[in-house]
Records
---
Amino acid sequence: MWKTFKHWFVNSFWYHYKWHVAVVLLVALTVVFVVNEISGRVRYDLSYVVAVEARAYEPQAAEISEIAGETVGDQNGDGQIYVYGAVLSLDDSNEEGVYNNQRLATIFVDDAYLLYFIDELTAERIGQWEEFFRPWSDFGIETGSEDPYLLRVDTWPVFQRAGLTDGPLYAGIKNSKEEDRQGAEAAAALIRALREHA
């Protein structure tokens, strides 16, 4: 019986349908791979960047992320609240700083990152703030200075506790090409919550 099946499979079925079987297997594997990739990807409700010249680490921004999770809520409707904070130390004197400078250049063109916390040196690198950031007045937030694009935040208690920089630290909302009004409003709500948080 086994010899008969083997003979039929090799000489008849496989001979006539090997390419059909190969294509079906390839399509099935592709579908499994794509479904696995899509289901495993985290969609963040808010992503922010802390870019400073001083040595800064992710745990220093933990309180900011915690407040963001409480404030922002489920922006993308997936039933989960995920906030991502990229903390970049831009000190050029070491390999990590060089890597982070390259990463920051990549993040600048990614519209997923709407909220930026930057020090003076990073602000000087950006240069044309009016092209990169939206005015805070669009969100009903006064900057208290002549610059409508950068809001000074280093004197707020949450940032003093974080110790991200010794000098001035500014917040800006990116002027997104894909007008993400809901995300920008969520970023502005986070700024209001951070200002009020003692």
---
Amino acid sequence: MMFIVNNSILANGHPKGSLEDTSNVFVSKWHPKMFYVVLPDLSLSFMLPDEPDRTGVHNLFFISKESCDPLLLDTIKYNERYFTPFSPGSCYDAVLLYNNGKYVKCNDIVFENGAEVNMRNQKIQPSDNVSEYWKKTIRTFDRELGRDDMVSEFIIKGYVFHEVSGSSYGAFVRLIGADGKWNASDGYFEIESKDDTEQTLVVSNAGSIAFEKSNIIASCGFIIVLIESPEAKQFRLHPELWKPRKDTQ
């Protein structure tokens, strides 16, 4: 399994000391209630609070207890997107940053498989110098797409990654029993739901095991790593087994 992560680079992919001014960049007013992280060996759920100011979520990120650097759930390097390989048992501070600079912070979160992190019981902190720095240097969750035509509050957004390469991965994403679907050719998807009812999300691609998550809230975020199928793994490791047989006659 290959990962590309460089902790000396800020979450927006720019080296320290080379800040990107995001103050004039369009930001969508997205109000997710949940955030799901599905990695090969780690599954996490984050319950997000309601924001009274309704400015929208900028991003969810984590502060390393060792380096104190902010880490997003994905890393962009050389114009490629990779998922960040958080390890089970590692400890981080979780930060939910809003577009107005206010934020919610949960300290000392241990990443255990299946853990649910309740950020709803934390007080929303006022904007300060540190959060303004975060907002200026950390990209928004959907920054790369830059869409501004989603008007519903009930939007599911996420990224799909490949288990082996670690990079973003094209996939077909749909909601069961709903009209919503998205061809995530670049790994990113947005699906608009008509109401706030619970949904079932299905993500699939040839060569991977389909992912399905039921009872999700209609407004939420996802980071999904699709697991390679046994057939695709066999073909990758033993391509000679799939060569056409010569006619023996």
